[in-house]
Amino acid sequence: MTSYPSDEIRDDYFPKGDYLDREFHELEKKHLWPKVWQTACRPEDIPEAGDYIVYDICDDSVIVTRGGDGQIRAFHNFCTHRGTQLVQGKGNAKQFVCPFHGWRFGIDGRNIKVIDRQDWGDCLSKEDVDLVQVQVGEWGGFVWINMDPDCQPLDVFLEPMKSMCELFEFEKLRPAWYKSAVVDANWKTTLGAFTEFYHVQTTHSQMLTYTQDYSISRAMGRHGWISYTGSSGLPVGRSPRLPPKEQPDFREYLFEYADQFKDYLKAMQTERAYQATQRLRTEVSADAPPEEVLSKWGQFIYEAAIESGAGWPEHLTPEYIADSGFDWHVFPNTVFLHPAIEAVLWYRIVPHGDDHTKSIMDVWSLERFAPGTEPKVEREFYENWQDGNYPLIFAQDFENIPKVQRGMKSSAFKAGRPSPVQERAVSHFHRTLRRFIEDPHADDQLAPEPLVEVPAETA
Question: Are residues 206 and 352 in the same domain?
Fold first, then answer.
């Protein structure tokens, strides 16, 4: 059996076997997915009593449902008689009925009918026939599940990210759109494209005209924190990778920022924020210093949100916003980008069934809407991402990810060599994943690390 020791990972090195080996996938099936917190759905997916949605991860299937008391519960999706799956997809049920032999279960998981129960005499206890419960928690507008009855509480597991992002009130955001696509790559290959900004300078080079793109990242407990250099954490400004160009009107960076996000990302910017940005044209002087322009930009976006009735988080400070970073990787398979405050991109990447060579990437574009104005959004699922009409920035990433997977298969490629500064979150993830597989509680008390010193020429 191949060995995957965690101390083999360095900040600048991780072996390719974690992506390619079927044996590593089997370890994940046994030691990761059944024992880790992961996002299963959103509460509004199951608004009424009896509503349910199925979350599948490798060989496991979980029913997430809302009870008559309004509580969200989760159960393993099998009949306790002979293992038949009870439901698929989503729907509403007063009972879960096994389609094979007719055993019945309440939406609270209690067995309420065993056909010809007398056949068993005294053999069946309550524990034998009730559905097997799964741990459930809510944070950030998502329902999280954990199949391990001895797992760390969700609030503890999410630290320090939870404390550093709590004030943004993600739970008040709702989907503007929600797409899922199959990607021809291991789930970690897909995840890796969204846990670093080092690739922006090549993959998304159109952004460099308004993006000071040098990034930093660090380990935060089990999780990864990614941001940009500078006190605000915002990357606004011309990249030093481009030839110098005088730009006396700082507003132009923000106009291009707004236009590209509107056209090439279609996320992380509400329409009202885009319109608020246009106020800079008439209400801020072309020769205003960058600090004034940024201040007015934030003010106009805030005013638009308040006027719309969407509201705004009350307790945010510039220091809190900067400390919270730009992008978080929440171990093992959740990523969110939140620089816009009222518009967040949220990703979940999972294996495609039991196929370790493919993954499914879910993308929620979340926005803060005035109550009652939220659009009704259904999931769009694409077997081929090219059918999904994804914006340019996603298309650029989706083009590259399968190339990474194919390239790693080369007999001459032995290991990834990530930047210890800009891709530290990537190597930290690999180390954390191996440690979790060794012992799911090994890092329960892992403290955040300080920022890695930025090289002088980029500081």
Answer: yes
User: Burial, 112: exposed, middle or buried (Cβ in 10 Å; 0-12, 13-18, 19+)?
Assistant: middle
CATH number at residue 107: 2.102.10.10
Kindly tell me the burial class for residue 31, based on how many C-beta atoms sit within 10 Å of its own C-beta (0-12, 13-18, 19 or more): middle
Question: Which residues lie closer than 8 Å to 175 by C-beta, 6 or more apart?
Answer: 42, 364, 365, 366, 367, 375, 377
Number of domains composing the chain = 2
Question: 101, 120, 150: which is the final residue of a domain?
Answer: 150
Phi and psi torsions of 180, nearest 5°: -135, 145
The CA-to-CA distance between both ends of the chain, in Å, stands at: 45
Per-residue pLDDT tens over the stretch 182-202: 999 999 999 999 999 999 999
**pLDDT (0 to 100) of residue 233:** 58
Residue 305, domain member (yes or no): no
Residue type, 318: P
Residue 335: how many CB atoms within 10 A of its CB?
22
Q: Are residues 410 and 448 in the same domain?
A: yes
Peptide bond into 455 cis (omega under 30): no
Residue 219 contacts residue 449 (beta carbons within 8 Å): yes
Q: Are residues 65 and 210 in the same domain?
A: no
Helix (H) or strand (E) segment spanning residue 252: helix 251-260
Q: Provide DSSP, 179-219.
A: EEEEESS-HHHHHHTTS-STTHHHHTGGGGGTB---EEEEE
Name residue 236's beta-bridge partners.
211
Q: What is the pTM of this model?
A: 0.95
Asked whether residue 65 falls in the same domain as residue 197, the answer is no
Q: In this prediction, what percent of the chain has a pLDDT beyond 70?
A: 96
SS3 letters for 271-318?
HHHHHHHHCHHHHCCCCCCHHHHHHHHHHHHHHHHHHHCCCCCCCCCH
Asked if 112 and 16 sit in the same domain, the reply is no
Task: Please indicate, yes or no, whether residues 330 and 233 belong to a single structural domain of this protein.
Answer: yes
3-state secondary structure of 328: strand
Contact status, residue 331 vs residue 146, Cβ threshold 8 Å: no
pLDDT the model gives residue 454 = 63
